[in-house]
Write a structure and sequence with these properties.
The chain has 224 residues and is of the alpha+beta class. 35% of the residues lie in helices and 27% in strands.
């Protein structure tokens, strides 16, 4: 592939997953203007290893995903984008900003589904939905446990990894999967490992607990 416009973010985009973005920096407005001249506008998304999204100068990971622009909405002070994850990419060389980040990339092989992975896919589906439902009892979750996923098994596997209640570091690990079986098994392991923390009753507020202790220990004044 030739030079690709890049968008380093503090989140990981997985294939077949939606990604809404808000564009307010001038360099990314320029990026968007150039992309919209293309028939199928897309750009690369990579996770920031160190630094902030705004302002530049961040350190970036080299594995990411191509984001295809689905919808553009103009606001008063920014531009809203809805994108969806496509093929995975590896950065082979970072180029000078122009004025936005650019890189030379290569696409990574698509994962392939085999019939023997069907039971594992169903197990991951059930586990992710169960943990999402339990986690929602204690805190707000981004994804509903009953969300409808793709009928295509590879896309569904990526979407399960995307809706699973995991952090960016875990998602980045999943993005490195070389087989669909590896993706499914690692998603299952990570979700099961995260379940106790996600479904534990919230701890009492330390301030309230300290106040309760104070009131409990305080006795009413008496005669001297």
């Amino acid at each position: 592939m030739g030079p690709v416009a890049m968008f380093p973010l503090s989140t990981v985009l997985l294939p077949a997953m939606p990604l809404p973005l808000r564009i307010f920096e001038e360099r990314y407005r320029i990026l968007l203007g150039r992309l919209l001249e293309e028939e199928e506008p897309e750009f690369g998304v990579v996770l920031i290893a160190r630094g902030a999204e705004a302002g530049g100068g961040e350190v970036r990971h080299d594995i990411g995903t191509l984001a295809r622009i689905v919808r553009v909405t103009a606001g008063e002070s920014d531009i809203g984008l809805l994108t969806t994850g496509g093929r995975r990419i590896r950065v082979t060389e970072w180029l000078a900003d122009d004025p936005y980040p650019r890189a030379m990339v290569e696409t990574l092989p698509d994962l392939e589904f085999k019939d023997e992975l069907g039971p594992l896919l169903r197990e991951v589906d059930g586990t992710v939905r169960r943990v999402l439902a339990r986690a929602a009892e204690y805190a707000d979750t981004r994804w509903d446990a009953g969300i409808e996923l793709s009928d295509e098994p590879v896309a569904a596997a990526w979407q399960l990894a995307g809706i699973a209640p995991l952090g960016s570091v875990d998602r980045l690990e999943l993005l490195h999967a070389t087989t669909l079986g590896e993706l499914l098994r690692r998603t299952l392991d990570l979700v099961i490992a995260a379940e106790p923390a996600l479904t534990a009753p919230p701890a009492p507020d330390e301030v309230d607990a300290a106040l309760e202790d104070l009131l409990r220990d305080e006795s009413p004044p008496g005669d001297a």
